[in-house]
Design brief:
This protein has about 325 residues and is of the alpha/beta class. It has 2 domains: about 120 residues, Response regulator (Rossmann fold, 3-Layer(aba) Sandwich); about 170 residues, Hypothetical protein af1432, CATH 1.10.3210. The protein is about 50% helix and about 5% strand. Strands 2-1-3-4-5 form a 5-stranded parallel beta sheet, with helices on both faces. α7 packs across α12 and α13 packs antiparallel against α14. The longest helix is centred in the middle third of the chain and has 37 residues.
């Protein structure tokens, strides 16, 4: 048909693209090139306006000029990529700067791609489509993770005695990780593993989880299956793979008498050793169907008495005791 662009493929999803440039002509040109492909647009004409619009409603992709008043594109890109809420938004830097150092600086700030002005229309469209596909993959992973973390919360919500347990274990674990000098990446891995350490209990019968009396051998074996069950649930997501040792091994012991694999000593990575202590502390200080929780100081005395029993890493226990006694607000 005359006048119809048969090459235009309108995407099923209404992707939103933020166009950021202090020159309105450049913004209009970008919109004219992209609009036939079904995208929706937000516009910003300086760096501060761009960040406000991203905070109000995060776009699917940002096309960003580097040289702007108030906040440069470098600063905008750095702020986007350093914020956990926005760091997965793809950023394509578009600039007239031709020096290699400018390109390297933009990449160091976290830019996902780089286009020189005047840009080629086909190249622009190709790179936009490619990064939007990548964003879809990120979103799928994020949705899958959200489902898993929601399942973990649902498990605890069923039982008044364990409600909030994983969040507290995560808090104590991250505090200990920070206290012994682990970096932010390790702290985040430990936080995620601690939040999910009991997710395998979704496959454990409620009658056993809430039983107030002594467990039979069959019931004990059933409940001890939860670390392996949790690992199976989470291993399909590669983004959770660093946390899998915590989920599977938080009930292992330093002397090899734990479960499910009976590994021991330095075979246990730092994450499971650390979370095991935080898990035990919260279990001691929380009320359960079969007993009341003990005061924090009593729990620390138990750690002091039992730290050489082979259950926990004694050096980490000493660090944890120091931490809890220092953090009086915990």
């Amino acid at each position: 048909m005359q006048g119809q662009d048969i090459n235009v493929v309108v995407p099923q999803k209404n992707y939103r693209i933020l166009l950021v440039d202090d020159n309105p002509t450049n913004v209009e040109l970008l919109q004219a090139y992209l609009k036939p492909h079904g995208y929706e647009f937000e516009k910003a004409f300086d760096g501060e306006e761009a960040l406000l619009k991203i905070e109000e409603s995060p776009p699917d992709l940002v096309l960003l000029d580097l040289m702007m008043p108030r906040l440069s594109g470098y600063e905008v890109c750095h702020k986007i990529k350093s914020d956990k809420k926005t760091q997965l938004i793809p950023v394509i830097v578009i600039t007239a700067l031709k020096e290699l150092s400018d390109k390297i600086k933009a990449i160091e700030m976290g830019a996902d791609d780089f286009l020189m002005k005047p840009f080629n229309k086909v190249e622009l469209l190709t790179r936009v489509k490619s990064l939007l596909k990548l964003k879809d993959l990120y979103d799928d992973v994020e949705r899958s993770e959200t489902i898993i973390f929601t399942l973990a919360e649902m498990i605890e919500a069923k039982d008044v005695y364990t409600r909030g347990h994983s969040e507290r274990v995560a808090k104590y674990s991250v505090l200990l990780a920070k206290y012994i000098g682990l970096g932010e990446k390790d702290q985040e891995m430990i936080r995620r593993g601690a939040l999910l350490h009991d997710i395998g209990k979704i496959g454990i019968r409620e009658s056993i989880l809430n039983k107030s009396g002594k467990l039979s051998q069959e019931e004990l074996a059933h409940i001890r299956s939860h670390p392996a069950r949790g690992c199976e649930i989470c291993k399909a997501l590669k983004s959770l793979s660093p946390a899998l040792p915590i989920i599977r091994h938080h009930h292992e012991r330093m002397d090899g008498q734990g479960y499910p694999d009976g590994i021991q000593g330095q075979e246990l990575s730092i994450g499971p050793r650390l979370v095991a202590i935080a898990d035990a502390y919260d279990a001691m200080t929380s009320n359960r169907p079969y007993r009341r929780g003990v005061p924090p100081e009593d729990a620390l005395k138990i750690f002091e008495r039992e730290k050489q029993s082979g259950q926990w890493d004694p050096e980490l226990v000493d660090q944890f005791i120091q931490l809890i006694r220092r953090e009086v607000s915990i």
